[in-house]
Write a structure and sequence with these properties.
This protein has 721 residues and is mainly alpha-helical. Helix content is 64%, strand content 6%. It has 32 helices and 5 strands. Strands 2-1-3-5-4 form a 5-stranded mixed β-sheet. β4 (691-704) and β5 form a beta hairpin. α11 (243-252) crosses α12 (265-277), α13 (281-306) runs parallel beside α16 (334-355) and α14 runs parallel beside α27 (545-565). The longest helix is centred in the N-terminal third of the chain and has 33 residues, at 150-182. The mean pLDDT is 85.
Amino acid sequence: MDLSSLDTAGLKLVNHGLANPVFDVLMPFISGNAVFFPLVGLVGAWLCWKGGTRGRLAVFMLALAAICVSQFVCSPLKALFERPRPSVVLEGLHLFGPPGGNGSFPSNHSATWAALAVAASMYYRGAWRWLAPFACLVAFSRLYLGVHYPSDVLGGLAVGALFGWAFPHLLEWLWTRLGRRFLPHAWQRLPSLFNPEAVPPPDFTPPEVNPARTWTRATWLLIGAVTALRLAWIASGTTDLCEDEAYQWLWSKHLDLSYYSKPLMIALAHWTGTHLWGDTAFGCRFPATVLAGVLALVLSRFVARHTSARTGFWFVLALVASPLLEGGATLMTVDGLTVFFYTLSLLTLWRAFREDSLRHWALAGVFMALLLLSKYFTPFLLGSLLLFGVLHAWQHPEKKRLWSHRGLWLALGINLLGTIPIIMWNAQRHWVTFTHLSERGGLKEAWTFRPMSTLEYLGITVGAMNPVFFVGIVWAAISFWRNRTERRDPLLLFLFSLGAPIYLFYLFYTIRAKVQPNWMAASILPLFLFAALHWHRRARAGSLAPKRLLTTGLILGLLVSYAAHDPSALGKVIRLPVTRKWDPLGRLRGFEEMARIVATVREKQEKKSGRPTFVIADHYGRASLINFYAPGAQELVSRGGLYAYAETTAVPKNQYWFWPGYTTRKGENAIYVLDEDKLRRQAPPWIRAEFESTESLGLFPVKFRGKVYHSVQLFLCRGKK
């Protein structure tokens, strides 16, 4: 009998042979229940509160081990082995719910609990007596439920136990080597991550190092560790490119002075990343993660210069706990570039204003030009800068006016150079970008009162910034305007003026038209800086509110960030199936599978008809995803062609309008892709008008980790007219 037969026999022995009414109730509860995560949260909070340093270290180590074994060990192994679940391929199993998610080997539940049992025993020696049997019970429950083979759970237990031992020891080794050398004062207080009561060797004498330098090094290590984790995450293939990323990757294959909806910098960013790492999701997103790391380093130094190195460290951690900023650090869209160059522009403008240095004014002009070449955002920067000039003149009538600085005009002149490629491109194309922007902003629409859009904008942006941090910013702003001394502080006034007007402008504009929440992304960092400086001063004055706000915000933000990156964990918490609607990263799931489905159907129909068959999508984003993910599509794109086209329009609606379309493919067939969850009887009339006949091929479910996320309807279109 081979191993596969033994696996199947062992599974059926447990699933059928040991079946009884008690286990039918107990095993689903052991495998996953509604009280588990709240209970774990309470235990973790109790350990942090009553367990002292040992308890906090244990909570940190166990949480990190559980996340890493799930995300960076089990997920890659599942993708490597691609073993289908027994509940999917075997008939006659006694099942208790859906057949399970992604790959079968190894069992994630078993690995996680084994890792927790081993890691916990390093802090509390008796913990293994409780956790090891429970890990085995969880593994048994996965067999009883019919969602894993015996080799899956045994492999999971082995992998988890090995990782649970190796991972903490690796961190201990790194802390002993790097902590002792780079953070000697911190290492002297905590020489071991396993034993908080340990004392440093008698001969250890920390060098005479300014504590600020220790915090600075800790900030560098934090930025390096976060950047490495982000790179590992985008390399793991957990998500697909979003529509905009694939669309702008396609721009990088047709480099130009500008594009229909955006300037050229986003195409250059994708060109750079893919030339370093190839046409992969990692290559597309690599620049975003690097830019986020550089920006965090710059901001930490700015905060440290105006407050303390310790505040700079916690400021960087707060950035990680802001969902929108964390998303911008792993997605290569124009928003990441906009935030990067807007922030560098305002920091350089501040230094130029304070020092009246032509060198810094010129550098500010360069960053402003790069901002303009990233997104048409310079008017907001200039308007906010003008507001600062007016407020500063009001608060300090005795000081030099902003507009009397000759360097400002140098910066504005350099900024104007950024308009040249945009104007040159648009002048040859009837100024289509300006038409698009007016349509995008709803300028051509009749005025309509939309209070629900305002509430939607508020709800989404508050969550995206982190609700606790949003409260901290609003609280700081109210205190700032009520305190005349703070109001006269030029730096606080500058940061408030460069952040708040952008957010408030879009908030009030929602009354007239719908606003996308990411439009205000550039306002977040100046507002975060403003709040950091305000609360630092409150903390120096003895207030406990800053520490409480920061602690609560970090806990909430980091938990939300983890739940967003791991939808299965989110599903276990909310006890609902994680569909595209409930998944925070739902717009990044299932597109590679969608492209594979389309390519398979296209090849089948081409062989069946004997005619060349191409692909048309109902949206430029879907067409771009198919061009990125469909087998053989990238090779065609690299030769200047297209695998999938966006549907034709009478006037420009996207960048596809300026590239060769499918009008020359007369007599050929096409597959029309429509993103629909309801079956349509006919293709849209404009598609029917372009072909001799059309036929629905049906709805095709698109899955992610075994769950249906959305569906596409495909139509066979015969004979292009």
